[in-house]
Design goal:
By secondary structure, the chain is α+β, with helices and mostly antiparallel strands. The chain is built from 23 helices and 34 strands.
């Protein structure tokens, strides 16, 4: 329908009484040109419409009420027929009815049975007839003996129902024959409902029907009024002139827009198509009122328009165009009565969007590659991640070759003619390419790989079948590759910081399209990102190896020999690398042993270096034979000085996260003194396997400063185990400290475990293969020095007691079979004891210990420590300690709670021979 015809139709369709006027408007309104006027107001028209609708509704309600009455009467009659037939058949077929009819004098019995059946069945009468139709029993006794009319079919053996009109009354009745065993009619039974009672029921229902009709009339009238009111509200009181002008505006806009509009009815016919729709869909001039199946539309577009479903920007081909189609359903209350479809030509936009989609897909691929490549700092794993990302989204087969120096974590060299295949991934099995681990050599100057290395950028071989230079190095291998279906190649040098690390080859096979120039850029970008990750992994591997080497050299290379403890140890680095956990075993004079366990917060090279500095400091402080609390105090001061910032190390990490446990065990009596700085208390396992965690004084971690360190004391029976550990053993992400301590308790609670077995059980039970934190573990089982190898003398504070004590010591050495050490021991004892009495303070005590060595100790109550010096020419004394140093293998001084102890140690089995020249010079002067 053209625009002119539609406008003519609109004017012709105006209601009677409307006329055109070219005069000016008489009142305000939206129209500024021509307008239509009418002698009737819009409200009068609405009232007429309302009355007409009310009349129609009244007629419909009356017809419906009459139909309901008729239907009710019919249904009532049918119900009466069925009820009468059921009662008659039940009585006629009842046991004993046929026998009673053949028995003389059974009328009274039948009469009683009929009255009872009438009441039970709910009918108006039940009559029993003989074969001739004479009543033998009836609800009305006055009718007994009279002949019934119209029962001939039943007498002939056929049951029937009818509407009976006659004497004694009009009724709906059923007559059923009564037959004996030989199928001979011996009587009849008639049951029915009087017509007057049936009409009475219908009359009772009539007020309900009339009330329902009145209610329907009221609802319809109210609905009509609401619809009329809503119509007035929706049109905002506009008259036909305004509505016509609005239609003209809409019609002009509809045909002016550059978007096709198609309105389709519920029957699939085209109701409206604007000019743009005609152009885009190539519709004929008579497309209006034609069905969609008759128009030359594409199958996809036709299916979309006939589906009856809403669509948004559905791109569908239409001839040589790509149309973006939007459809919306139209109809009352959302019912699918029709469809409105709009069309936009997106052919050129689709081409541009296709390129944008391709670019977006490549960017998404590269972004995903950046997320998946380099998740670990492992060179080989990073190469495998590169191949996993590229297959199958970019290539069917990917191979990665790296220099051996890169795999070892070393700096890559300029020699790139030999690489090792590190990763190979294919979308299907059976690739003929060389496997992982094989050496790949680049010896032919004209192959694509060598060309890529020489140019420093990717080389594309679109079709391998046509590339002769690719076959030059290995013709047989090239033939097998082609036979497997591989047909296209991109080879890219893997470069980082301008240095070649390896090669990456992308292959396509089977039905995959060959590589194009656009794929080269993606491959180069992918390899560039992987090269950075591989180089980072290589550098991390080198630094990690350096840190591991440093840490191994900083930790004890072996446990020292000593007699006091049986010791086993373990160190397990964290999954993330080396850390700062450490341990040490330090022999002390008098067969005592110091046990140390420490923890530096953090990982890496700095933690390892810090650990080495603290271990060295502990070794140095231990040489001074300090008590545990004094040693930790000196260590705390050192850490505080190290943490003091300077102008050049403001960014250095502090060491206040360092913890330490220092314990000294004395096998003479099994006494152990411990002090801890922020560290976990050790576990003590007695010889029976009972485990305790002693409550030892806890001081802040090292470097906090301002807090004194305290010492705890333990008395350990022989065979007890002392378990020292760092927090990595008992604490993890899925386990708190209390749970870890309970696990440790149950693991070591065995009386017969050796220290080595204890270490093995703890590492197996409590730690995963790669823990998140490093672990240091030290297990020591105690021994006691034989009491018979310990001799002690309290010496009077008098120089005359020196000779007597010396004699007693010589006698004890003879008892021990150490006559060879007697002379040197007497000399050492004389010098130490004389100095103690001359320069010290009481009490003075001498103790000799026999173990793997012979130890002589002299203690006094003075805190003054003697020191070795060279005596002057005129000095009378000052040469005693020099003599001690010449005859003893080692000597020293340690401080105790009251006074000091000077000790000298001699190795058994040999006599110390002093340097005679030095000794002569010292004595001469």
């Amino acid at each position: 329908m053209s625009g002119r015809s539609r406008r003519s139709w609109a004017r012709a369709a105006l209601p009677l009484g409307w006329r055109r006027s070219s005069g000016p408007p008489r009142g305000p309104g939206p129209s500024r040109g021509r307008r239509f006027t009418s002698p009737l107001s819009i409200r009068t028209l609405a009232a007429q419409v309302f009355l007409l609708q009310a009349l129609i509704v009244l007629v419909l309600v009356a017809v419906a009420s009459a139909a309901l009455v008729v239907q009710g009467r019919y249904d009532g009659e049918q119900s009466a027929r069925e009820k009468s037939l059921a009662a008659a058949e039940a009585f006629a077929h009842a046991p004993g009815t046929a026998l009673a009819l053949r028995s003389p004098g059974s009328g009274a019995r039948l009469q009683q049975a009929a009255e009872e059946a009438e009441k039970a069945a709910g009918v108006d009468f039940i009559t029993v007839l003989d074969p001739k139709g004479v009543r033998l029993a009836d609800t009305d006794p006055a009718l007994i003996g009279k002949k019934a009319e119209g029962v001939g079919p039943a007498a002939a053996g056929e049951a029937f129902t009818e509407t009976y009109h006659g004497q004694p009354t009009d009724a709906v009745r059923a007559v059923v024959p009564v037959m004996d065993a030989s199928r001979r009619v011996v009587g009849m039974v008639s049951a029915g409902i009087q017509y007057a009672n049936l009409a009475h029921v219908l009359n009772d229902q009539l007020p309900i029907l009339l009330g329902a009709a009145a209610g329907a009339l009221l609802l319809a009238t109210g609905g009509t009024a609401l619809v009329s009111r809503r119509l007035l509200r929706q049109t905002h009181g506009l008259g036909p002139a305004e509505m016509t002008r609005m239609y003209e505006h809409h019609d002009a806009v509809l045909h002016a827009v550059r978007e096709g509009v198609l309105i389709i009815g519920g029957d699939g016919r085209v109701l409206l198509a604007n000019d743009e729709a005609h152009r885009l869909l190539d519709l004929p001039e008579d497309a209006d009122r034609r069905k969609l199946n008759e128009l030359k539309l594409g199958p996809g577009l036709r299916r979309l328009l006939l589906s009856g479903e809403a669509a948004s920007d559905e791109v569908t081909p239409a001839g040589d165009r790509l149309l973006a189609v939007n459809t919306r359903l139209i109809g009352p209350d959302g019912a699918a009565q029709g469809l409105v479809a709009t069309f936009r030509d997106t052919t050129e936009l689709r081409a541009l969007s296709g390129q944008a989609e391709l670019a977006r897909g490549r960017l998404s691929f590269l972004y995903e590659a950046g997320m998946r490549i380099g998740t670990t700092l492992d060179v080989r794993r990073t190469a495998e991640e590169l191949s996993e990302v590229a297959v199958p989204r970019l290539a069917d087969v990917v191979t990665v070759e790296l220099l051996d120096s890169v795999l070892r974590g070393e700096e890559p060299t300029g020699a790139v003619r030999q690489m090792r295949r590190t990763a190979l991934r294919a979308s299907r099995s059976g690739t003929p390419l060389q496997p992982v681990g094989e050496v790949i050599r680049f010896v032919m100057a004209d192959t694509p790989s060598v060309a890529a290395l020489r140019r420093g950028k990717a080389v594309l071989v679109p079709t391998l079948h046509d590339a002769q230079d690719w076959r030059a190095q290995d013709p047989d291998g090239a033939r097998r590759v082609l036979e497997s279906g591989i047909h296209s190649l991109i080879t890219v040098p893997l470069r980082a910081r301008g240095v070649v690390l390896g090669m990456v080859n992308f292959w396509r096979a089977a039905d995959s399209p060959r590589f194009e120039e656009g794929d080269v850029a993606v491959a180069e970008e992918l390899v560039a990102r992987a090269a950075v990750a591989i180089d980072n992994a290589r550098r991390y591997g080198r630094e990690h190896a350096m840190a591991v080497t440093l840490q191994r050299n900083l930790l004890p290379l072996g446990l020292p020999e000593q007699d006091a403890l049986e010791i086993a140890s373990r160190y397990l680095p964290a999954r993330s690398g080396v850390g700062g956990d450490w341990f040490d075993v330090i022999p002390l004079p008098g067969f005592r042993v110091a046990l140390v366990v420490g923890d530096i917060v953090g990982h890496g090279l700095q933690a390892a270096v810090t650990m080495g500095r603290l271990r060295t400091a502990v070794l140095n402080f231990s040489s001074l034979d300090l008590t545990p609390d004094e040693l930790l105090g000196h260590l705390d001061e050192m850490v505080t000085r190290l943490d003091t910032p300077t102008a050049h190390d403001d960014d250095r990490a502090p060491l206040t996260g360092a913890t330490c446990l220092y314990a000294i065990y004395d096998p003479v009596g099994g006494h152990c003194t411990l002090s801890r700085a922020g560290h976990l208390a050790p576990a003590v396992v007695d010889p029976e396997g009972r485990v305790t965690f002693p409550d030892l004084p806890l001081s802040p971690p090292l470097g906090v400063g301002g807090h004194p360190f305290e010492t705890g004391e333990l008395d350990l029976p022989e065979g007890s185990r002392l378990v020292l550990f760092t927090d990595g053993l008992i604490e993890s992400r899925g386990r708190d400290i209390d749970e870890g301590l309970d696990m440790l308790r149950s693991t070591v609670a065995h009386a017969d475990q050796t220290p080595e077995e204890t270490c093995r059980a703890l590492m197996t039970t409590m730690l995963p293969e790669h823990p998140s934190d490093d672990v240091a573990l030290l297990v020591a089982r105690t021994r006691l020095l034989d009491p018979s190898h310990v001799a002690t003398w309290d010496v009077p504070f008098d120089t005359t007691a020196v000779s007597r004590t010396r004699t007693e010591v010589s006698m004890r050495l003879a008892d021990w079979g150490l006559e060879e050490q007697a002379f040197s021991t007497e000399l050492i004892l004389s010098e130490l004891l004389t100095n103690a009495i001359r320069y010290g303070a009481p009490p003075v005590r001498v103790r000799i210990l026999l173990g793997s060595t012979l130890v002589c100790e002299v203690s006094d109550g003075s805190n003054t420590s003697p020191r070795l010096r060279r005596a002057g020419f005129n000095d009378e004394g000052g040469r005693g300690l020099f003599l001690v140093s010449q005859f003893a293998d080692s000597w020293g001084t340690r401080y105790v709670a009251k006074g000091k102890v000077i000790w000298a140690e001699q190795v058994l089995g040999r006599t110390s021979e002093p340097d005679l020249s030095v000794l002569f010079d010292e004595i001469a002067f």
